[in-house]
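Board notes (copied after class):
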Amino acid sequence: MYAADAPKRARDLANNAAHMARHSSPLRPNIGDSSSSQAVNFSIGGEANSVRTINLKPVTGWACALSKVSGYYGRGLKGNYAHVYKAGSMWKLKSGRASCGGCSVAAEAICWETK
């Protein structure tokens, strides 16, 4: 990043926080009244200039879904990249954008116990 771009980048990051506050509406699964059901939230957030992946829960006994995605790009909106998927015996959350140059990407997933 060039020093001349620092003030604009600071404004962009501040605008991102305001944007995320205005447009946040995470989904929540209906897990019923059973005390044996468990729901767990996971998140990847902050500035990202690479794609990141985290393990969520085992596929056996758990279901996972993307619950929230938001992002802000200093050079114009280029789209958000996030998804939940099965890989082997694990659920995974992948989020980010390679070489986005001053972007902020956040993604959340929720997993709940199945019977």
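Comment from the instructor: Residues 3-25+36-113 form a domain with the Immunoglobulin-like fold (CATH 2.60.40). Residues 31-36 have pLDDT under 50 and may be disordered.
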